[in-house]
Amino acid sequence: MITADARAIGVESYLGMAKAYWVNPGFRAVLLFRVASGLAKRGIPFLPGWIRSHTVSSTGADLSPQAIIDSGLVLPHPVGVVIGSGAMLGKNVFLFSGVVIGQRETGAWPTLEDGVNVYAGAKVLGKVRVGKDAKVGANAVVINDVDPHTTVVGIPAEKVNAESEKSHSKKRLHQ
């Protein structure tokens, strides 16, 4: 899975992965998550929590080792990214700075399907599903399901379509 994470940022070799670990805090956060998660799955105590704490202090990202995250996770700017323990993320998910994937009530965690992009400051909260290849705009708050191939923005997040975007642009031009 680590090689798929490396490929997602354009790194193909083991030497490239070693370099990326030192110069790319987003890749470092993902690699450390993979190690902590693997240890947690094997029932090894203490070490996954220590690795998580180290990840927070060295990258600014707080990724729970209990989260289920498929390959190809990319954190271009990891500071402030939080992924809670019950979250499930598909393949090739991009999360930008300040994104929170967390619960809204006890035991209610989000699922992000393959190819989802969540932009800076957005929050995905509660038992919601964000569909394949969906986009969540900056600072949006997702508390309802998002259909595949859809873009949502706002608080609470709502679907944006081409017609509403044209209408919004016309309003700005006439003000």
From TrEMBL:
One of its GO terms (molecular function) is serine O-acetyltransferase activity. One of its GO terms (biological process) is cysteine biosynthetic process from serine. GO terms for cellular component: cytoplasm. The keyword Transferase applies. It catalyses: L-serine + acetyl-CoA = O-acetyl-L-serine + CoA. Belongs to the transferase hexapeptide repeat family. This is Serine acetyltransferase. It comes from Novipirellula aureliae. The lineage of its organism: Bacteria, Pseudomonadati, Planctomycetota, Planctomycetia, Pirellulales. The gene is cysE_1.
